[in-house]
Write a structure and sequence with these properties.
The structure is a homodimer.
Chain A lengths: L1 E8 L2 E8 L5 H8 L4 E6 L6 H14 L4 E5 H4 L7 H8 L1 H7 L5 H20 L3 E5 L5 H10 L5 E7 L2 H7 L4 H6 L21 E4 L5 H15 L7
Parallel strand pairs in A: 3-5, 3-6, 4-5, 6-7
Antiparallel strand pairs in A: 1-2
């Protein structure tokens, strides 16, 4: 990782050696005190993915660990912005070419980009927590395939459709039932349950705090984070 | 940030309160011991951006700070993959729609996505170091506009074209001069020098270690990281 170069500057020739001081994953892990990984929360709208991811993030942060939640709020406004958001700064043609909508293809790309970003966070030694419905197995499996073995932790936040629909925190089920939203997961588009999730938690009968315990416990047992003293 | 829900599970109705325990930027900063930001290294191919970014990353990591380098190696293989890389898993139509090439539009999108990801890292309390030529002011200014005031730190790694071409660590200038690469920055495509960079370092007459000192010094003076004891 070294390249010897001769640079000319200010009229005199100087010898400059350029070293590429890349930080190794082991050095990063030692500095952080834990491993990086992706906790991929999946489940129906209203199942509590985002709440759970934020609660786990909060607990990890309180212990001094490096973690971050990727969710619709911070991704759909920037990285995966809709055409309408890109238009003003970048123009119509650019917005149409690169903006993401809600077609099946666009939703696959949405998840693919999120997976790629989560991978970068994991490489940076961070525990990335993602909270997206990600209803199709092919989407989740594509992200799993991107990551190093053991770095992708699929957490299925399970709750019956009836429970999620009764909660309906954003009023989306109501709109979907009224036909105002098409292809809504659970209503007129399928949710493909994980077959081999690393962890399944039951958000219909347990409080978020209990589910967070289970996630933290899993991370400790897997050796991703050290056990609490 | 609280939603009361009634969930039904296992035949009994339970009351579950869902709290959104988001970690605040201040809490994140306290845990990390420094602020998050984006150090955006820009300059000609061969000017030493990547070497410098990695050296600064190394020093920050050695002090226990949270930092990470985004460069072509980890971005063009995943997030901003070319069509050819997407084709196998996602099919031809998907690859053509979402794969990034090297047209002016695609290069703008490349930088836009990198900026959006760097923003996520900064939000996560991390010092993100990016090492891309990013030759156009409009690209860099678009990223600056995305970020909160003070979070975008433009570092111009300045070296005369002759010096970079003489170094030619990847043999790219030779190919560009031979006409094998078109629209190569500095040869047949412009590099627009930053007008108001937060920091300008001179890589033609100074070793990478000296430039890294200047970057670290800047971060300390700006209050992004604490002064070294």
């Amino acid at each position: 990782m070294e390249a010897k170069v001769t640079g000319e500057g200010r009229g005199e020739t100087v010898d400059v050696r350029w070293h590429a001081h890349a930080v190794s994953p082991v050095q990063r892990e030692q500095a952080a005190g834990h491993k990086g990984c992706v906790l991929w929360f999946t489940g129906l709208s209203g199942c509590g993915k985002s709440t759970l991811a934020n609660l786990v993030d909060h607990r990890l942060n309180a212990r001094g660990f490096r973690s971050f939640v990727l969710d619709g709020d911070n991704v759909r406004l920037g990285l995966n912005a809709a055409p309408g958001l890109l238009k003003e700064r970048h123009g119509e043609a650019f917005a149409q070419r690169f903006g993401l909508g809600f077609s099946a293809q666009d939703r696959d790309e949405n998840i693919r980009r999120i997976g790629a970003v989560a991978e970068l966070f994991a490489q940076a030694g961070i525990i990335a927590l993602t909270a997206f419905i990600s209803p199709y197995r092919r989407q989740r499996d594509a992200v799993r395939a991107m990551l190093a073995p053991g770095q992708f932790v699929e957490v299925y936040v399970r709750a019956p459709l009836e429970v999620c629909e009764q909660r309906d925190p954003k009023g989306l089920y109501k709109k979907a039932r009224a036909g105002e939203i098409k292809c809504f997961t659970g209503i007129d588009d399928p949710y493909e349950e994980p077959l081999l999730a690393e962890l399944v938690v039951d958000s219909a009968s347990q409080a978020a705090e209990q589910l967070a315990d289970q996630v933290i416990d899993w991370l400790e047992k897997a050796g991703t984070i050290p056990k609490k003293k």
